[in-house]
Amino acid sequence: MADNDYLSQIHSEELDKFVVYGDLNCPFCFALHERFDAWSLLGKIEWRLIIHAPELSEAIFSLEDESLLANEVFAIHHRAPDVSVSLPRARPASSLATRLVMAIDRYDRKKVPDLRRELYRALWQEGLNLGDPAVLVTILANVGLEKFVEASVRKNPDGSVEPLALWEFWRLLGSEPQDLIEWQERWETDVSFARRIPIIENRTNNALLQGLPTEEALYQYLVGRRAHFVNDDVCVFQPRPIAIVFGWMDHLWPLVKILKETCEVLHFSEIASCRQMLIDNEEIDFLFIEDEFVEDDVLGELAELLKT
């Protein structure tokens, strides 16, 4: 959205009445955060981080989890073509990075919007693991917050720095802040939220905007009126070849890493869903199957469907 008149209208509003609930490991929240950044709103609208999948663990990142992740990124490419997003290898748990943001809020509140932006981009553009202390330490340095961990790191005789262990990083963050506990409870228990993210709340009239809106819908919500809005400068979605991956995406990651740069990647772990996708869609260009994942008869059936 590049129209200065519309941006001026948004900035003339009392924006502190809005609050967003979002998670760092949700691509739809990332897309909304990027739009707020493009509109210079990150320091004006409160962004409350919550953890929408506390049970998530890289050790048990299932086939279903892989499918959900790939299909969410596919949806972002279509629904928010103005936002650059790349499929990461896995969806990391967000609790460590979320607690880091809360700790920095107490340490240097003005740096929080920059830190949050870099955390989102590290995952959704660079594919980095937000559960890795070394990644978080690097991001802190990138936004000028290296002193936050300086006293906790150990230097070797040669001047190199010993990486912080996971438990050491947790200790550095301190106890769970009350704000985070209250935000999490509100998001989990308010029936009007329906446990959806992202969600924007207008605290003056309780109006909610759930999910990732179009730019026009977001504008109309923020200014509180129905107005015709056309954004001629938004990026137009450019169709790319569609590739289906059937099997463990993690096992096929060297291939997927190349594919995602030029193709839309869909992932399936269940034969019926994959079969139906091939039957219903003529636009599928490539089908990649993990050899040990299917029997020969299923492999032949899928290959024939793709041909037809």
From TrEMBL:
UniProt GO molecular function: oxidoreductase activity
Domain called DSBA-like thioredoxin: residue spans: 20-149
Family annotation (Gene3D superfamilies): Glutaredoxin
Pfam families in the record: DSBA
Protein name: DSBA-like thioredoxin domain-containing protein
The organism of origin for this protein: marine metagenome
